[in-house]
Each structure stands twice: as structure tokens, then as C-alpha cells.
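Task: complex structure prediction.
Instruction: return C-alpha cells for all chains below.
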Amino acid sequence: MGGKADVWQGTLALMILKTLETIGPQHGYGLARRIEQTSGDKLALNYGTLYPALLKLEQEGYIRSRWGASDNNRKAKFYELTKAGQRQARKAAAEWEQATAILARFLVPAEEA
Amino acid sequence: MRKLRAFLIRAANFLRGRGRGMDRQFAAELESHIELHTEEGVRAGLTREEARRQAILHLGGVEQTRQAYRERVTIPLLDGILKDLRFALRQMRRSPGFALTAVLTLALAMGANSAVFALVHAILLRQLPFNAPERVLDVDKAIAVGLGYNMVGADSQFDASFNAAAQSLHTIEAAAMYTTSGVNFSIDSSSAAERLHAAETSAQFLRVLGVTPHLGRGFLAEEEIPGKDHVVLISDRLWRSRWNADPAVIGKTIHVNAFDFTIIGVLPPRMDFPTNTDLWAPTIFDEQTDLREPGALFTSVVVRAKPNLPIDAVRAEFTARAASMNPNAPKGEDMRPVLTPIAAQLTKSIRASLLMLSLAVGLMLLVACSNLAALALARATRQQSEFAVRTALGATQGRLVRQQLVEFLSIAIAGGLLGLLVTQGILQMLYMLKPAALADFPRPALDPVVLAFTVLVAVFAGLVFGFVPAWVAARTQPAAALKLGAVTHSARGTRFRKVLVAGEVAVAFLLLSAAGLLLRTMKNMNDVPLGYDVKGILSFSVSLHGAPYFKDKNGASTPALGDFYTAVLSRLSALPGAQGTAAISTLPLEKRPEMLLPVTSGVAGDKPVAAAPRFASSGYFGALGTPIIAGRDFSPSDDRNNERVVILSRDLSDKLWPGQNPIGKQLHCLWYCKTPPVVVGIIPPVRRYGPSGSTLAEYYMPYTQQDWPYMTFLVRTGSNPAALAPAARAAVAAIDPTQAIYNVETMQQLLNDNESLVRFELFTLSAFAVFSVLLVLIGLYGVVSYSVAQRTREIGIRIALGSRRGPILRSLIWESAAIALAGAAVGLGASLVFLRLLSQVLFGVTPHDPRALGGTMLCFLVASIAAAWLPARRAASIDPMIALRAE
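Output:
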């Protein structure tokens, strides 16, 4: 994998939500690039896996989509957070922070020993 | 919640078939994605082709992405099943014979099942419209615990002992007594009366049942006291038909048997207890209202158990009370009260029949399913190479099994839905015959419960007979199946089919022998000499009420009664086509309650004999076709001015004066014969309750010597007796238009009603049996045909080598007969065990009747030979050249 990490199950949704929260409405390609960049190019993301995840979030009512024009005037489908999506982004981020904090306590002493 | 929302959207997408539209949209989105990515690549200096290639590579493949997306749009499992369903339909179109056979067979079998279930649901599973109906108990022999009331000879003083006994029993909340009778009902005294069913009850009746009037009020406790009891509750049906559901009906006065009653309430629509009752009056303790006819001496008792008490606790208290109240009673069963939940009591007459029918129809479905399983197995064996190819191409076993099950389930459900038409047809046909056995029960309907039952049975049937081919599909080893060639012969499959068909024979044997026993019962019943001839007789009844017909309390005669009957008879005999007319207080086969009274020979020390009194016109025996075997008939001159006369049935005279000539002797009885009448004639025993009932000791007196308030008239004619009904009504109306005429029936109809339960069972069981035998024939035919098809080559060789055709024919027929004999042997064993269920309705034949069982055995032997004949003939006439070239 050339030092690149696979996307963990379930974290992709959170990445999408947080990214949309930061940069606002974005199309699928833009989102994929942005996620890759944010990870410091450390994630091996098949761009295609983004779309079922987007559809799932849309079915769950966290995001909505509409067709619009991209920066260079191409037709593209834009995704944006709904109210529920904003709440979910905050909630999931908090849960994730808590989980990693707990896990970190296990990992830190091990490194010291 | 969010997950559910997503699921619902996906399900909706699936149902609305939006998969394809979403697919197109997504294709556009993907295209735009790739375009954006490509442009960026081009900007970075790549060629357009290379940039596009990179974009698609980075995406992870266009088709893969679309597939992943698609699976998220709808629900893939449902999509798969839909595909299987389409495949199943294609499969059916390819071999319509198999699908058609299966659907039709199942439609008939499941239609019959749903019909029987509809009956069971409407009758046995009916929720009575009572509050906590499981606590309402019928009490037989309630007199043993003091819950009785002696109507005969009771003085007009109200007898409070019933309520005292009820209160002293601690396991019950309340007790009530009731009796039913036909009454003449009219809104005012000048209009024509209508004949209705009334219930006379005690005041606690509604409380025991847990029923509240939906208009007005129920009985007050003191309204059962004679003098305060002229209040009445009416049925919802009567309220709607006679008063147009007018709420102002409360407080109105109606006439019941010419007495005034005030309406105090209307009972809810579903309240139908006692069955067909329209009027309820708290007059059970009243000797003056005369709602019940003389002779109706029997009352029923119902009690309501206290809540949270097992029925056995109530039984225990009643048994203990009975023992303490009758310490000297013989240890027999006679004085022990019997408590039965009211629902079971109401369905007592039909329960065993319906359970037996459920069993029979379930067995029939089993036959149908195993027949289809045998067919399906044959087909699956043929399809084995197809399964093998598909397995080799990567289909999983689960996929093959699922597809088979979907195919068979869809066949079964199609069969079930078509079967609902069959159900409707069966029920309509059944009720077209107006079976008296079902008359007291609600008519079944195809409601959602029956529908749900049908679907459930269909799924069950589909799984049962789809299991076999699914199993074959799952076990297919592609390598072996492909190696063996297009047709594989599975010895184990063939044996399995034979076992299935033999099982069918066993079940069909059980059904057919049951039908045979019922047929013999029917024949035996028709052979019984009734003592009268029902052909060509119309009968109807009249009960006289109102001023001129009132009974004189001082015992003086009421000539208006006899005059009325004589006038009706003279009008009837003037009708064109009337060959004989007569009147009798209780006609054989009539459903009036019977009264048995003690009579003696008058010799001191002789034991009294219980006998039924009858009041008849002269010419009654001639009109009914009953011979007078000694002495004479009544004559018109047998009136009050002449000597009192009586005619006895031979049972009675043999008991009173055994070995002597009874003519000229005097009969002594307590009621209705203060002056002992002289025996003038003897008649042979008459079967009062029809062929399967016993005979009854009877004594007949002329109505011209003893007043009687009701009469059943009969007219004999050479043509259709039912056509005389309007003329009979007119004859009564011409004499007194206010009197009701009721029970207008031909005697043939009365006889049919009497045999209704046997007819009902015979009709249904024979239909099931015939259908099962038909299925067995098809099954045997299938087995032999299949075996011929498999052995074509072998038979060809044998014939080519000089074998004669006879042994081949015989061996194939033996194959079929062996299956039938094995199955019939099992069926015979089952018959010996299960046919005892029928003994309640059998008449003149035991459940182990060798003729019925032997006949059934013979029938199956012949059937097995017949089924094998065609394919065996085909096999025996095989041209060896063609047979050998075929492969």
C-alpha cells in the first residue's frame, strides 16, 4: 500500500460530514480530493467508494444534493449538510474524540515502557 | 430512526422501480466526476487519454462503482428475489403443464382447506359477544344443586328458591335460568301476528352473560316476580326491521301471545343467545303469561364464574353441593351437575364433525403436496444437468436453493389465491343446500383471517413440496452430473417418489373408507321403516292466542280451539290436489320439545310407563301413511258427547298389557285425561326422531275431546307439496288473520334436516376422498410413466432379444399395484385407528365395517391397475428399433 492507510470502516462518513462542514457545498470529486489532501495524502481512497457513502448519508437525511455548476462551469452534483447533518457531524466527532482519547491511554504507556 | 428512514427510502425505491432512473442519474454524476478529474490531469500536463485512464483508475473502476452504488439505492436481496421470480415465471412459461397442474391441484386442495377453516373460524373460534365469555358456564342437571324450578304444578306464588341457591354458591357471581319458545308477536292486537323466537329468562340473565343493551336498560332484579314481569328486550334485528331503528321504541307496548309487554331495551346486534331469539322476557317463573307451550317443561341454567377462578373450582363446589343436597341419591351420574363453558356447549353438535373435516381436508392437502413433490422431483432430476452447469459457472448452492424455493412458493401462492375462488364456490354450494346442521351458527365469510390462513397454508405447502427439488439442486455435484450426460437416473429419487405415492394411497384410503362408511350409513337410514310416508306432504303449524282461545282456568272447554282446527281442515281438504288432510299436536320429525308423562293400565301395582301424549284429527293416520294394525281410527263423532277414546302405539300397549288384546281397555293418565279413555286402536311404532332415533311410546286422543293450543296441519298431494304453501296460508288467514302460521315445510325437508349432519359430512368427505383418489391416480400414472421413460432402452433390448410383451406389461402393472397395496395396508391400519372418530354419526355400521374397508381396498387395486395400464401398454408396444436409436 506504499505506506498509505486504508479507510477504516465507518470513518468515511465522519470524514465526509466534517469536510462538508468546513468547506461547505461540494461535489463528489472535490470532496474526494479534499479528504485526500486533509489526510496529508496518507489515505488510499478509491474515489468510487465515496458515492455509496454519500447516498447512505443522503438516505439518512444528513446531507442533501442538487445539480449545479463547478468552478470551471461543468455540471456537477453538489452535496451540503442538512441541519441534522450538522448535529450529527458534531456528535460523531465528539464520540470519535472520546474513543481515540480512551484508546490513547492504552497506547501511550506501552510506548514509554 | 435514521437507519429506518434510510431503509424505508430504499424499500420505496425498490417498490417504485426507481433503480434504473437513479442509475442513469448516477452515470451522469460519475461522468462529471471523471471529467473533472481528467481536466485536472490535463492541466498537470498529461495527455487527455492518460488523464482519463488515471481518473478511472483512481475511481476504482466505473462498473464496480456503479454496482456498489446500485446496491445502496434499493435492497439487493429483494432485487435478487425479484429476479428469481422472473426466472420462475419464465420457467413456468417454458413448462406450462407442470405449473398449471401444480396451481390447479393446489387451488382445489387449498380452497377446500380455506373453506373448512372458514367454517371452523366462524363456528368454533367465534368470540361470543359476551363480557369474558370464558367465565359463562352452562349447567346441566342444575336441579341437583337447587338451581331449578318445578314448573309443573307450581302454584302462582313466586318461588325464590332459585335465587337463594344461586347466592349460596360462592364460586359464581350470578346464575340465571332460561327457556326458549316460539311466540306470536304483533305490534297491535288487530294486525297479523309474526312467529318469533322468544327466551323466557330470570332477571340475572344479562348479568350472567355479560351483555348490556345498547339502548334502554336491562331487567331489574324484581322484574322476574310474576306481576311485574311484562317487560321485554328486543333484538337489534327486530328493532331495525320493525321500528326502523327508532330510539323512541323504548316504552312502547307490543303483543306477545296476545299479552301486553313493554319494551325496555334493545340488545346489541351480535347478541344471538339463545340462537335466533328476538324477544327476551323475565317471565321464567310466571305461570300466567303462557309464553311457553304446554309440554315445554325444560329449562337451561347458565352461571358466571367469579374472576380468576379455574372452572374446576366451580365444578368442585357444584359437585360437593350436589352430594350434600342429595345424600340418598344412588351413586350414579344422574345427580351430578355438568358444567361446560358456554362456547363449547353451543358448538357441541358440530364440533366433532368440524374437527374431523379439518383433519380430512388437511390430509387431502398432504396428498396434493406429496403428489406435487413427486412431480417436482421428477422434474428436478431432469434439471440436474442444468444445476450442474450453473454450479460450475459459479452459482452458489444457496442461490440455487433460493431460486427453487421462490419458484415453488410463487406456484403455491398463486394456487392459494385461485383457491379462494374455490373456497367461495364451496361455501356457496354448501349453503345453497341450506344445511340444517349449520343453521344455528353464523355463516362463514372470506374475511382477512381466512385470507391470512390461506397465505400461511400456501407458504407451508410451497415449502413442503419445494423442499424436494431444492434439496436435489443443493446436492448436485457438477462433475458427476455433467459426466453422466443429459439424463441422470437416480435410484434413490425413484424410490422416494414411490414412497410418496404410497403415502398418498394410505391417506386417500382413509378418506375413501370414511366416505364409504357414511355412504352405508346414509343407505341404512333410508332403509329404516319410519312408520310413515313423507312423500308429498306439506306441513305447517299454528299456535292460537288471544281472547276466544284462552284456556279456562276452571277446566271448562274452549270450543274455539277445536272449531278453528276443524275449519282449517275443511278449507284444506277443498284445495285442488289435496288427497288427505289432518292435524296433530306434534308431527314426527318436528323440532318441538317432547313431553313424556306417566300412564298406567289402571291395575293396582302396575308400574307407570312414560309416554308422549298426542292430539289428533280423525284421518291423521291415513294421511300420514301409518297403518292402523288393530281397532279403528278416530271418527268425527268422537266428540265431547261420546265416550273418550285413545289410540296407542304398539310399544305402549305392549308395555301396559303384554300379551293381551288392548282394545277396549281403559288408559289411566294424570294429565289431559280426567275421564280414562278407552283404547280403540293400535298403530305400529313411529320414528319420531327420524331413522337413527329410537321409537317412542305414544298415546293419541282426538282434539275434539281434549283442547290443545297448537296444531301442526298436513296436506298430502300427488304433485309438489311446496306449491300448496300459499294456499295453506290463505286458508288460515281466511279464518283468523291475526294468527301466525309457521314452520311451513315439506316433510321431505324435515327428514333431510334430520339427516343433515350425515349429509353434510358425506358431501364434504366424499368430495375430499374423490379428489384424493384422483390425485393418487395421477401420482401412480406418473411413477409408471417415469419408469417406462427411464427403461425404454432396456425394454427395447429385451424385446429385441425375444422377450414377450406380456411379462413386461405385467411387471409394470405390478409396480403400480405394489405401491397401491403397500399404501392401502398402511391406510387400513390408520382406518382402524381413526375411523372411530366417526362413530357418533354412523348408523347401522361399525367403524371397522369389513365391507366398506374391503371395498376401499378393491377400489385402490383397480385404480392402481387402471393408472398403470396406459403407460404399461405404451411400454409393451415399444418398437425396439426406435427405442435403441433414441439414445
